[in-house]
Every structure is written in structure tokens, then in C-alpha cells.
Write a structure and sequence with these properties.
Strand order of the largest sheet: 1-2-3-4-5-6
Structural class: alpha+beta
Oligomer: single chain
Largest sheet: 6 strands, antiparallel
Radius of gyration: 20 Å
Order of helices and strands: HHHHEEEEEEH
Mean pLDDT: 81
Length: about 150
């Protein structure tokens, strides 16, 4: 999870050209930044707000009621191709289906109350405690605003 956040952060900075120049120097900070030779970096809130604006703004994000993402991932070293489908419905329903070659379908879902996973090896299992909390957080369709 930490790797995904780090990669996402790098992508945000790269994709939107966020630089220290995007943040105006605050009172008294300009001289300190010039004296140290280090540019002042934007705050997390400034980066996230710029990201929200790049997505079309808060109103546009809040108007989304469902999302379907289909993907194909190729692993040349393993000579394998996985198909995946991610389905989400506001406010907090989510289904993830991944077809793994020579294994079968792995399904992971949250219906707003109950979270579960299913795979050919272990069958169906309900998620509880920390897994349930993570499923709730991941199921928020407009998590970008939170």
C-alpha cells in the first residue's frame, strides 16, 4: 500500500508539473528560502487541491455515481495475461474480479456493509476488523475528496 501511495505521489507531481513555484512564499518565508538556496515546497493540501482541479473540480467528482475499469496485465516472464475488472457504485459499493491464468477468478467485494473475498483455493471468506476497515475505505467512490 505504501508503494502505491509513493508511486501515486510521484505521478501527481510529474503529471501536473507541481513545483515549488506553485506556492507563493508566505510572509517572512521568501528571505529564508532565498538565503538557504532551497525552494519552498507546496503543502500536501496544495498538491491535493491542484489534483482535484485537474480532475475537473469538486462538483465534477461528486457527480460521479459509478465506475467500471477493465484492464489486461501481461507478465511476459511468466507468459501470462491477467484480465481484471473493477466496478464501483456510489456511495460505497465495490467489486473487483481478476482472472488469474491456471488458477481461476479471484473476486473481492464490499456491498456497503459486508466485505468478502473468493478464490478457487480458499472459497468465500468474509473480511472482518482491519480488512473490513480497508474495504470500506477502498469502496468510497469519491475518495479523492476525502
Amino acid at each position: 500500500m505504501k508503494q502505491i501511495w509513493a508511486i501515486s505521489s510521484i505521478c501527481l507531481v510529474t503529471a501536473f508539473g507541481i513545483t515549488a513555484a506553485d506556492k507563493p512564499p508566505g510572509p517572512g518565508n521568501q528571505n529564508a528560502a532565498i538565503a538557504s538556496g532551497k525552494p519552498e515546497l507546496p503543502t500536501v493540501d496544495q498538491i491535493l487541491e491542484k489534483y482535484i482541479q485537474a480532475l475537473g473540480g469538486r462538483a465534477a467528482i461528486q457527480s460521479i455515481t459509478s465506475r467500471v475499469v477493465k484492464a489486461t496485465v501481461e507478465f511476459p516472464a511468466m507468459n501470462a495475461i491477467m484480465n481484471a475488472e473493477f466496478i464501483a457504485k456510489a456511495p460505497n459499493k465495490r467489486l473487483k474480479i481478476i482472472e488469474v491464468p491456471d488458477y481461476g477468478k479471484v473476486v473481492d467485494g464490499f456491498n456497503g456493509t459486508v466485505a468478502w473475498s473468493q478464490n478457487p483455493q480458499t472459497g468465500i471468506s468474509e473480511k472482518i476488523t482491519a480488512e473490513l476497515a480497508l474495504a470500506k475505505r477502498e469502496a468510497t467512490l469519491i475518495g479523492t475528496l476525502n
